[in-house]
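Q: what sequence does this backbone want?
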């Protein structure tokens, strides 16, 4: 990556506590690039880099005006992992210029070698630049996400401060008022991580930002947030299939496999559960076909009740989580109501359930899990073999008619099934990047 950036004349430096690539790749690799490269040039170059090395550019999350998080899927020697590349230009937070331009870090950068022995070399800022960026990043994470610093963070800041005290004091004078600077120096001087975080959390509001820059930056910040809401970076997946098709097992595998690529995870059974307090626990049905169907009117009302839960739950729960780059995984979805009506004691015409279903917000991907009748019955024989056969036919017909649906067999090795679902997710994410940014793998 570093050689690729240098060949393409990108002025960059690696920032943070980043002398050992093996350790930083477990979290994020933070890069600062020249403001002139951000965002379009760097997005195209990283897309090109992934294409040339057969990596998958899985997602791009713009979490600040001048900051993109690139999530890259790498598969090497049958091993698979996600790398998070955090790239920024001038540091801006919530429409405020945080007194640290990319040029300040780049003009005095120095060449370093990876301590893990890989032989990789890369540029890093000098000690004053490393301190400035790392401090602002820690304040940002503490204030926005409630993520406190640890012993390593405190040690890193202390080491850099005392190695370049005069330059750092001058930068603190430019960036914070006198009280804010005192907070920072007290934080660095503490031997306790708890006291360090206490002083850190109190320092953001004491930054001496120039008021004249706010109007344009704040307008851009509003536009960025609107864009994030219109184009969310999270993903909603719904697993469908008869009982015994492997939804729980595949779901657990997907959580382990895909959650590192997202900023959060929520799992749901059937509905968003926004009306949970009114409707009951929403737990899985133990005896799916053991009770008689409700009357026609009651069933029609139940379909509408589901609709309300999905609409309200989507806009007040699912959509905000999706905007915040969460993976949302459903075990069953509304469409089960007309694919397996006996399970929900649905006794009204199926055309009513289908018509109501047209108003239900759909997931980004339906995955119908399928296996032979014999395999399904051997796993869970809650219904007759004939009923299992009928359910399989309905789910497969639904998959054939629905453009957002894929079918994955589960009467094969679990790793193969999960790999096939991952391939479908990869296609969805690639198509999304292609449509939004002209990028894909």
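A:
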């Amino acid at each position: 990556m570093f050689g690729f950036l240098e060949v393409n004349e990108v002025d960059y430096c690696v920032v943070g506590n980043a002398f050992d690539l093996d350790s930083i790749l477990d979290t994020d690799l933070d890069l600062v690039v020249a403001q002139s490269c951000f965002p379009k040039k760097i997005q195209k170059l990283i897309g090109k880099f992934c294409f040339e090395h057969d990596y998958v550019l899985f997602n791009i999350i713009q979490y600040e005006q001048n900051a993109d998080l690139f999530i890259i899927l790498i598969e090497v020697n049958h091993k698979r992992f996600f790398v998070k590349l955090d790239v920024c230009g001038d540091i801006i937070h919530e429409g405020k210029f945080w007194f640290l331009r990319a040029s300040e870090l780049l003009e005095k950068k120095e060449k370093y070698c990876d301590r893990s022995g890989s032989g990789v070399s890369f540029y890093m800022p000098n000690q004053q630049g490393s301190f400035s960026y790392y401090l602002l990043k820690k304040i940002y994470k503490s204030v926005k996400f409630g993520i406190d610093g640890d012993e390593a963070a405190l040690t890193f800041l202390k080491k850099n401060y005392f190695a370049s005290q005069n330059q750092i004091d001058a930068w603190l004078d430019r960036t914070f008022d006198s009280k804010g600077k005192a907070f920072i120096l007290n934080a660095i001087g503490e031997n306790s991580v708890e006291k360090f975080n206490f002083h850190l959390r109190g320092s953001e509001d004491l930054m001496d930002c120039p008021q004249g820059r706010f109007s344009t930056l704040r307008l851009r910040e509003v536009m960025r947030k609107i864009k994030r809401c219109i184009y969310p970076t999270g993903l909603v997946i719904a697993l469908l299939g008869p009982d015994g098709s492997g939804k729980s097992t595949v779901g657990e595998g997907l959580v382990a496999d895909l959650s590192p690529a997202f900023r959060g995870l929520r799992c749901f059974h059937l509905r968003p559960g926004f009306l949970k307090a009114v409707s009951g626990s929403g737990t899985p049905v133990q005896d799916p076909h053991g009770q008689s169907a409700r009357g026609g009117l009651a069933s029609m009302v139940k379909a509408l009740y589901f609709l309300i839960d999905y609409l309200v739950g989507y806009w007040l729960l699912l959509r905000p989580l999706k905007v915040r780059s969460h993976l949302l995984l459903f075990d069953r979805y509304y469409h089960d109501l007309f694919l397996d009506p006996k399970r929900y004691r649905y006794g009204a015409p199926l055309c009513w359930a289908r018509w109501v279903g047209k108003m239900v917000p759909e997931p980004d991907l339906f995955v119908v899990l399928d296996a032979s009748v014999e395999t399904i019955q051997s796993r869970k024989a809650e219904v007759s073999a004939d009923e299992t056969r009928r359910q399989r036919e309905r789910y497969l017909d639904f998959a054939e008619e629905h453009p957002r649906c894929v079918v994955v067999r589960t009467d094969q090795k679990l790793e193969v099934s999960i790999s096939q679902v991952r391939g479908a997710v990869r296609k969805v994410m690639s198509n999304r990047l292609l449509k939004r940014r002209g990028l894909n793998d």
